[in-house]
Amino acid sequence: MTGAAPGRPAPRRAERGDTLPPMQVALAQLPAQLQRGLAPLYVLHGDEALLLQEALDAIRAAARAQGYTERSSFTVAGAHFDWGAVRAAGGSLSLFADRQIMEIRIPSGKPGKDGSVALQQIAEGARGNDSTLTLVQLPRLDKATKTGAWFGALDAAGVAVQIDPIERGALPQWIAQRLGAQGQRVAPGEEGQRTLQFFADRVEGNLLAAHQEISKLGLLHPPGELSQAQVEAAVLNVARYDVFKLSEAVLAGQVLRVQRMLDGLEAEGEAPVLVHWALAEDIRALKRVKDAMNAGRPLPMALRENRIWGAKERLFERILPRAGDVQLARLLQSAHLVDGIVKGLKQPDWPVHPWQALQRLAFQLARLGAPGR
């Protein structure tokens, strides 16, 4: 993401009297918003470091084009952080600049009581302030935090940008778009899709590394079409996996991806007990919802009562109508046996090695979600 493109007018700063209403924008809409006019305050929240950095760079570039030559930065850490220094910085300028960027980073996402008051004051002060551009950086926030007074004040004072991760299903297209931005593309049709899937498998869960691998291809090869062999020779295996994404892959019946993820988690030193907990919790949740359905509860109600929502809700909706009580009872028994194995016990007819036992359990559960079942 960059600032104004060559040949286009630089984004203008909203002048006093202009009406640029507060808004929440998706990351993809940020360049267009910057072209319409620079807001007095931006709050960016999310855990995807690459996308967050690119969004910040785009805002800074637009600000520099409007004469914001000074920059001050504060990282909120600890209960005794000096919010007075932040408020003072927002109202002071050096002799060498009449516009400044003030950045406030809150890694925990919890500013505390004093911080909540200070952020509301900063948000109020940002309205109509043509000399200070305020950038607030936050991690991914839960619903309760986003409905709090301090976040509401920031949102109302300017533009809120939610930085969502690139989900696995969207990763091949994201890679293709990034390649296109540097003048490269994969082969058309099925060959190109295989190339993108290979690329996505190698970088899943590690968007910074994905960006580096794409940049590497730009250095190694000229603009134009990339062959699958060129991509396979250049792209390192830098994927990172987490237990909760494994859970979604298992419920979706993606057996090959499940195998890669289990191998990756083992290589990264993840605790088998944690992987077992995630798998067993899904099995227990499926059984609870199925029992509720058997008792006459509609599926949507049973899911809400068991706090199943989002991507997992859609997977449960697909699995449960075709999951039998006997199958779920067997899965519960398997989960019980594997619980002992990951804690060092031996079980008849089961692998002794914890990761092999986890693989068998994961594959048993994945059969319920296998496409076409």
Structure in words:
- The chain has 373 residues and is of the alpha/beta class.
- The protein folds into 3 domains: 23-163, Rossmann fold, CATH 3.40.50; 168-234, Helicase, Ruva Protein, domain 3; 243-369, Zinc Finger, Delta Prime, domain 3.
- It has 17 helices and 8 strands.
- The chain has helices at 30-36, 49-65, 83-90, 112-126, 143-146, 149-157, 171-181, 189-203, 207-220, 228-234, 243-251, 255-267, 272-294, 299-305, 311-319, 325-342, 354-369; strands at residues 23-26, 41-46, 70-75, 100-105, 132-138, 159-163, 184-186, 224-226.
- It has a 6-stranded parallel sheet with strand order 1-6-2-5-4-3, sandwiched between helices. Strands 7-8 form a two-stranded parallel sheet.
- α3 links the parallel β3 (70-75) and β4.
- It starts with 22 loop residues before the first strand and ends with a helix.
Comma- or semicolon-separated keywords:
373 residues, alpha/beta, Rossmann fold, Zinc Finger, Delta Prime, domain 3, 3 domains, six-stranded parallel sheet, 54% helix, disordered N terminus
Secondary structure layout plus pairing:
Layout: E1 23-26, H1 30-36, E2 41-46, H2 49-65, E3 70-75, H3 83-90, E4 100-105, H4 112-126, E5 132-138, H5 143-146, H6 149-157, E6 159-163, H7 171-181, E7 184-186, H8 189-203, H9 207-220, E8 224-226, H10 228-234, H11 243-251, H12 255-267, H13 272-294, H14 299-305, H15 311-319, H16 325-342, H17 354-369
Parallel strand pairs: 1-6, 2-5, 2-6, 3-4, 4-5, 7-8
Helix pairs in contact: 1-2, 3-4, 4-6, 7-8, 11-12, 11-13, 12-17, 13-16, 13-17, 16-17
